[in-house]
Amino acid sequence: MFRGHCHHTIDQKGRISFPARFREQLEARGTSRLVMTPSLFDACLDVYPIAEWEQEVEEELVRNRGLDPDTLRYRRMYVSRAVDVDLDKTGRVLVPQELRSAAGLEREVLWVGSLTKIELWSKAGWEGYLSQTPEQYEEFKRNVQERYKQ
User: Fold this and answer.
1) Is the pLDDT of residue 10 over 60?
2) Mean pLDDT, range 22-27, rounded to an integer
């Protein structure tokens, strides 16, 4: 599982170091291949180890082949923009320009653990996501407590 976050910078060629603690997770899975795709709901990239992508996204979509418009749109928007990437020998990954643009990634970025996947955010995007008024925070807290009965 991926948890925590790490600050990094993207170089001019679009390369970024993959956090050592996340790299250890990949090594334990015996892979250095990732799948990146723009999130449909936030200004970030969703990054999956290849096995999790195949299991959580592809197999699920194959099982639920429904022809309803939302499923078709989800498959087209999420899967068609996915790119396989590999870590290089120094533990960096090249983020294609199209994906950097889609997520607004420039120089300062954050890798954010999200259990079975990782999110790649611009620093400004992440800070904006976390900022909220006290009223918004109280509403969020109530919703989480209700959903998870905490």
Assistant:
1) yes
2) 93
User: Residue 18 carries which DSSP code?
Assistant: P
Distances (CA, A) of 100 to 21, 39, 97, 120: 23, 12, 5, 10
- What is the identity of the amino acid at 114? S
Topology of domain 5-148 in CATH is Chemotaxis protein chec (3.40.1550)
Tokens encoding 33: 């291949």
Burial string for 86-109 (b: 16+ CB within 10 Å, else e) reads ebeeeebbbbeeebbebbebeeeb
State the pLDDT confidence band at 66, using cuts at 50, 70 and 90. low
With 60 as the cut, is the pLDDT of residue 150 above it?
A: no
pTM above 0.85, yes or no: yes
Domain ranges (residues) in the chain: 5-148
Q: Could you give the CA distance from residue 66 to residue 47 in angstroms, rounded to a whole number?
A: 25
Q: Map tokens 């997520």 to a residue.
A: 103
